[in-house]
Amino acid sequence: MDVKWIDGVLRMIYPQVCEVCGRSLCRGEDVMCLHCLRQLPRVSSNGDDFNLLHERLASTVAIERAAGYFHYYKESPYVKLIHQAKYSSRPVVARKIARRFARELSRDGFFDGIDMIVPVPLHRWKLMRRGYNQSDYIARGIADVTGLEVSHSLVASRGHATQTARNSYQRWVNAGSVYELRDGASVAGRHVLVVDDVITTGATLLACCEAIHRVEPSARLSVLALGVAHLS
Ligand SMILES: [Zn+2]
């Protein structure tokens, strides 16, 4: 059956809109209109942005590569891209954005030598409440492009209070002990890409990397997030 024809009919019945500005999408546009895509406040992969990202993450664990797609701050309309995925039961948005980012990174060789993707896990209670893990959808989006395996060997071993009201130190302490690697052998000697929706202080991603290294120090680690928050 002609997939393009079906897509055309579906678009007539359910017009797709830009997740950022709400304008109807034209053929060839996906998730964002071309205008919003051009204005995306991108994190550059070199210079100050990269140093900031790497600094936040590489102080206690050896992180080989770090990538973030766009700057994430409260007043920005682009936070909707994350909020749709996280709070509005539309994780497919995160998957599609991850695909777009992965295609770009792929061209630059970012995934060369990486063996597997590990999403930052949600505790099972939170997973039950939300129904999905948005980071898992980001991992799947990257896998759609790269063909890399998505591993769920990292688990959140106990729940913790929402992090939004906590300061950096509390976040660090709070996130530090909740992640647990269940199958060390699966990451032994392998290059693991840990993915999250947003990097704020970097504490969550670091806690995940530390949890992997605690069990399997031979694992090599890189990280990726869609949003990179400004620190106040
Ligand atoms: Zn738009």
UniProtKB/TrEMBL annotation:
Query: Domain Phosphoribosyltransferase, which positions?
Result: 98-224
Q: Which Pfam families match?
A: Pribosyltran
The protein's superkingdom reads Bacteria
InterPro entries (alphabetical): ComF/GntX_DNA_util-trans, PRTase-like, PRTase_dom
Q: Which CDD domains match?
A: PRTases_typeI (cd06223)
- Similarity remark: Belongs to the ComF/GntX family.
Q: What is this protein called?
A: ComF family protein
